[in-house]
Write a structure and sequence with these properties.
By secondary structure, the chain is α+β, with helices and mostly antiparallel strands. It has 2 domains: about 5-85 and about 200-215, Glutaredoxin (3-Layer(aba) Sandwich), CATH 3.40.30.10; about 90-195, Up-down Bundle (Glutathione S-transferase Yfyf (Class Pi), Chain A, domain 2). It has helices at about 20-30, 40-45, 50, 70-80, 90-120, 130-150, 160-170, 185-195, 195-215, and strands at about 5-10, 35-40, 60-65, 65-70. Helix 5 runs antiparallel to helix 6 (about 130-150). The longest helix has about 30 residues, at about 90-120. It is globular.
């Protein structure tokens, strides 16, 4: 059965690989599973056909046979459970890797994503500078804690796992902000993930969509 995911027809990230389908593409590349990508316009994302797959009208979704999933974290978890390479065999290590998946999406990502939204939606508001300081203080607290835990290790807990995959897709949203560079071990951690062949294949696949859209 062919796996089909959904992705932006014209990604708002400008080819930086920040859209959440990047997580799913990368996971599938890590476990060696082929897939098709169905590209959607913003209008199509809010139409009944897509809302039947994703009740909030977002991307990505995942379809395989009679299974349909939404939410990038849930999709990556499903891929990691079904295929070797993203979760350890040892039960305790496996559970810790899953904990890091939750930490990436529930603890580290929220203030980072809120900062991105504030920079777009609140820039002209009188409270903008204060709002930005509060968010960046929160981000630095999370980064400091993460940096201390990572130390000089290559990965969060033993071998590379789905926890690292999700964490790095979150951290990459800070590239260009200057904040990530304040923690050299985190910058190096992101760079290690970006050097993985599976990451490069996923990034190139997402970038190809933007290139095709701009020349089509």
């Amino acid at each position: 059965m062919t796996i089909t995911i959904t992705a932006f027809e014209r990604s708002p990230d400008g080819g930086k690989g920040l859209a959440r389908d990047m997580r799913v593409r990368w996971a599938l590349e890590e476990v060696g599973q082929p897939y098709d990508a169905r590209l959607l316009s913003f209008k199509a994302m809010k139409e009944p056909a897509h809302l039947a797959l994703h009740p909030f009208g977002q991307i990505p979704t995942y379809e395989e046979g009679d299974l349909a999933l939404f939410e990038s974290g849930a999709i990556v978890f499903h891929i990691a459970e079904r295929h070797a390479g993203l979760l350890p065999d040892d039960a305790n290590a496996r559970t810790r890797a899953i904990a890091w998946m939750f930490a990436a999406l529930n603890t580290v990502e929220p203030p980072i994503f809120d900062r991105d939204l504030a920079k777009v939606l609140e820039r002209d508001e009188p409270w903008y500078e204060q709002r930005l300081r509060v968010l960046e203080d929160s981000i630095r607290k999370r980064l400091g804690d993460l940096s201390s835990r990572l130390g000089d290790a290559d990965w969060l807990d033993g071998a590379f796992s789905a926890g690292d995959l999700l964490m790095v897709t979150v951290l990459r949203r800070l590239q260009g902000s200057g904040m990530l560079e304040e923690y050299p071990n985190l910058s190096a951690y992101v760079a290690r993930c970006e050097a993985r062949p599976a990451y490069k294949r996923a990034f190139d696949a997402q970038l190809a969509v933007l290139t095709a859209a701009s020349t089509g």
